[in-house]
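hi support,

uploading two proteins for the ticket. first:
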Amino acid sequence: MKSVKLGASIVAMAAVAATAGYARDNIQTAGSSTVLPYATIVAEAFGENFSFKTPVVESGGSGAGRKKLCEGVGENTIDIANSSSRITQKDLDLCASNGVTEIMEVRFGYDGIVFASDIAGPSYAFTPLDWFNALGAQVVRDGALVANTNKTWVEVNPALADKPILAFIPGTKHGTREVFDTKVIEAGCKEAGAYDLHFAASAGADEAAKKSDAAKACMTLRTDGVAVDIDGDYTETLSRIAANRDAIGVFGLSFYQNNTDKLQVATINGVVPTVETVAAGDYPVSRPLYFYVKKAHLGVIPGLQEYIDFFVSDDMAGPEGPLAAYGLVPDPELAATQAAVAAGTVMGPLQ
């Protein structure tokens, strides 16, 4: 990585930083494959510019990272969980049961979820309805729910290419999958009228239960091989497309932008995914990016406070920083995030 030019405030912070004698003297983070490259950029710059060791950054998926964060407090547990989806009440309950009672939620920017295919293949203009009709386990035919037997994209939508449906999508432990399920599959299910049919067929005891049943039914995907879960990171999805050139993969916007020599991107509802369309709110499939900090480790793990301050600094996460250069959509409320991180503000109940 190229050396990062730091502002005066960060240089001063690095100058006064000093390590102490702790059993573990490096920061440990894990989680989202979408956040992975950003966290790696920050970790490498931190190691180059501070007297602390370079933090260890591992992937594994947003859900897996949050689960590791919640394993307990102490040097044998991680300090930070990187996440491309927001922490859940289930996560918070697990944390509380293991003594992790104070968590800092840090939103550091935004990213889009894109649908990309081999650069030499046909171009695609999708809608959420197309994706539901391609991958949903049940679709609507003549007003009724039936098993999905669509084999090609042209069967889904006559305007699409006459190519076999094969989609490489993030596995269920990834935060990207959560957003894909809700903003694409469930949205398409509602547009198709399938949600209402699932709601009517639900045996739930009340409206809330029926809504939950309908949403779960909408997000139930085919199991006949057209939707393939990828449990690894985006590099695995890219290699699958290289071996299956008719396939379409689900990626983070920043990963696509760094692989435009291999991939072409589809529009969603007529909008091309770019940093500008995500920032403007025009591109419909976008999400905030987070990391979650175990506050009990501040002041215990050397450099942890300095690292999180550095991560959200203008030098790193601002519009002119290296994270934006890689593809991050900067957070317009970054200053408020910086103040909250400096104050050690912990998150309250989920809203």
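and the second one:
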Amino acid sequence: MRKYFSMALTLAACAFSACTTTAPVDFALKAVEQPLSTPEVEQMVNDLYAKMTQGERIAQLHSMYVGDLFTDGKLDTAKCKALIPEGVGHFSQYASQADMEADEIRDMVAQVQDWLIHNTPNGIPALFHEEAISGVNTLNATVYPQQIGIACSFNPEMVALKTQQTADHMREVGGFLALSPMVDVCRNPYFNRLEESYGEDGYLSAAIAVGFVKGLQHDGLSTGIAACTKHFLGYGGGHEADEKELREEILFPHEAAIRVAGSKVVMTGYHSFKGTKAVANADLQKGILRDYLKFDGLMVSDYGSIDQIDNIEDQLERGAASLNAGNEVEFPRGANYSRIPEMLEKNLITEATFESAVKRVLTLKARLGLLTPGAKLYAEGHIQFDTDVERQTAYTMATQSVVLLQNNDVLPLKGDKKVFLTGPNANSMWAMLGDYTYQGMAYFWQHREIDNMHPRIVNLKEGLENRKPAGIELSYTRGCDWTEKCELVIEEGGDDRAHIYNSWQYSRVIDGREEIDRAKAVEMAAQSDVIIAAMGENAMLCGENRDRGSLKLPGSQEDFVEELIATGKPVVLIMFGGRSQVISNIADKCAAIIQAWYPGEEGGNAVADILYGNVAPSGKLSMSYPNVELNENICYNYAVEQDSRIAWPFGFGLSYTQFEYSNLTVDKEVAANAEAIRVSFDLKNVGDMAADEIAQLYVSPTSLRSQFLKPIKLQGFARVSLAPGETKHMEILMSPQQFGYFANGEWNIDPGTYVVKVGASSQDIRLNAEVTLTGEKVTMPLRTVYFSEVQ
């Protein structure tokens, strides 16, 4: 059996399968205690700090855009002397600000680092950072599927492979910090940044986050890239939750990324937490993060968030409030922190607070190797992005992220058939690319035109043509646009760059650049055997600061699908985008429904292979999929019964085959302080096609009145590959701590009887058995076991 990291990580140990790359991440069992500093590093930092001028120290807490130092593509030393005479700590989104080849980015970084090393008092290199949820955020770099789709793969091991590839390339072009991953637990299906998250479940989000951080950091900082988990805490929903839910679930991905994977940078959000902006919230940063989680890494602001502390108008006081709360670096520039000398002079901050912030920056740089004499700060020679290996990773991830929601035996497409393809997302790269891709950010934030060649983005039409088997006759016309008028609404708050739009930019839409003839499309549909309708949103309709006020299909897309259905031919509805779409008016009339999310550069080939049956769909929903407009938090674990407002539940996804679950055994009695609970069952492919199944492990209380657990909660999963007729015996080790809960400031495990459930989704439980925890109640400051382990 192919062994995936599915659920095995304890604070003392992490069980992953090794990634098959040139320098595999070590996922063998190991101690988790990974302090940011060591005695040697601490001495180095103390010695350096003592030699630094006050200006140099302050500069370490600032960032800027590297383009500010260049004139006509060349480093302007006069600007360097004027702007960074005593250095600078960081450079913001350095690789995505212009269309530059990898070698050009590296050369730009090399010039700046060389100047800093030879022209500032202590020659301290800067920390260049970039976004990385879909790969290195720059021209020509591989674009992997968006995070919400990746979560549907339930495959942290593949995530680790992807981020290791990302880290290798970012190091080549001089980057050492990724402002990724976003690990917000997002329970509001309406949330416009849901696509950047891993969905509604704390356990799944934590497992994927650990894979992301492990791969990115190469299981350590000396050869990898520092991860930055964001947004602390509850920005994507949950900041309003009660303390129990907050600590058990909303905090879970941050906690696991820090305590299991060793993440050393955390970013707060734009939101308020219990009435105070997160960036200036001491209870959040010092209370929960430092005191409770024992985080010893670096705290950074989201872009412009210090300026948005709305109850403090004075820049000096805003900066002081953030520093005193625990925030150490101001992004993307440093206007508020430039006034640190005044803050110190007026005793608004202490020398100890200031010194601690500077030393944390220096310590991170030391751990990444930037302070080592002769450090390799970038690669030499030609740098090649988007290799065949990375494209294969992107393709595999895309095939695993696609979710088949409905299939009335129309898929896979076999035999002689006339297939008609239509819709705004059929022949567009924007169906493949979400927010925080290089293309999406360049188009929205920087208003640059983008093509599909850097790297090559394969759309659905191209994929269907590339993979077309004998007997399939494919025709196409666009049929309708995403919208007939601009639906974009720029929301208040968030990144200030969104608000520089002038009146014509507010009405900006993505141009499909094709003729739209609806009547022709309906006529062609009527002459076909099967209709494929590619619908959904795009990067100008949903994303950071972008919204359109509805979860229904944009514009007149739903009406167009109704016209296609009226032809009497089976309609395969494929939805692309970063969140659910409410399609209750048309769902039952469609022959098949696929949620493809934003599947990345190989998305067209991946979806085509699923449609043609070259690959069986295997994705499972990482969020509850609504059938009505919802703008509120909702989660499968609120009740055992499915909410009537949900069309498809968390964990749901169809295949082209069927799986049989049997022979569940669970230890009957285990001490509450024991190390493990043994769970086993058999899983069989009873169909006639090879496929992967994602078996899911849930726990429930036997009494909601006396046991302080959610009605049902994911506590493990295993992605299993099965040939037709093949059976695999699954063995999983759980921990009694997974039956625990937060109360009175600590983790509690009560003796009692609980239910272990195994199934194909949160609403498709195939097997269940009881386990009784015996002995005395167990309490501990923090849980030390976070995941189940597949044996």
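thanks. also noticed: The two ends are 10 Å apart (CA to CA).
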